[in-house]
Write a structure and sequence with these properties.
CATH superfamily: Haem-degrading domain
CATH architecture: 2-Layer Sandwich
Helix content: 40-55%
Number of strands: 6
CATH topology: Beta-Lactamase
Number of domains: 1
Distance between the termini: 39 Å
CATH class: Alpha Beta
Largest sheet: 4 strands, antiparallel
Length: 189
């Protein structure tokens, strides 16, 4: 088997694992206090990494008021597509990280799958998001780091995203934090 064929098989093997994560990580409800607690946990996890790579964090819920956590001050503002939001940029990040977040979030909102799942799904098919779905890679990023925020009975209502690490690490950091938060509030199914 060629190296390319092996890589495709390894990618295909990830798909059921990521789908299982998407099926099991969901909440009965999610408030601005949940966004703040989860966002702070993600920040703590990033700060505890030995490589100290900087990243940005975003938690959003579609089509409402936004609560932004900036420099440890919670302020309210309006945006196009977020209700409760935690946003934080670690020192050493750049505006490019926010561009990645926006593109990853757009992927989750459109396809209701994590951006990592979409990237691995497309890689397994040896195609791109632009080729398969006729959407611009300037607007959508099928790279790991954005995960659906799913509410029981409602479905995908938002996105938890990180950008700054390699894509598999961005994805796993978000998954680990969401699973830990679900366990903390006693909601893991």
């Amino acid at each position: 088997m060629s190296a390319e064929a092996t890589a495709v098989e390894e990618t295909k093997a990830l798909l059921p694992i990521i789908l299982q994560q998407e099926e099991t990580i969901h909440f009965p409800s999610f408030t601005s206090n949940d966004a703040l607690a989860l966002g702070l946990d993600i920040l703590k996890r990033l700060q505890q990494r030995t490589d100290k790579k900087p990243a940005v964090i975003s938690i959003s819920i579609a089509d409402r008021t936004v609560f932004k956590y900036v420099s440890f001050t919670l302020t309210q503002s309006q945006t196009e597509n977020a209700q409760f939001s935690f946003r934080f940029a670690m020192d050493g990040t750049s505006p490019d990280n926010w561009h990645w977040i926006t593109r990853k979030e757009a992927t989750v909102y459109r396809f209701h799958h994590s951006s990592y799942y979409m990237g691995r799904y497309l890689a397994a098919q040896q195609t791109t998001i632009e080729q398969k779905y006729l959407v611009s890679e300037r607007e959508y990023a099928a790279h790991g780091g954005a995960f659906p925020l799913t509410i029981d009975g409602l479905g995908v209502v938002g996105v938890v995203a990180v950008s700054g690490l390699p894509q598999a690490e961005d994805h796993q950091l978000v998954v680990d934090a969401m699973e830990c938060y679900m366990n903390k509030i006693g909601q893991h199914h």
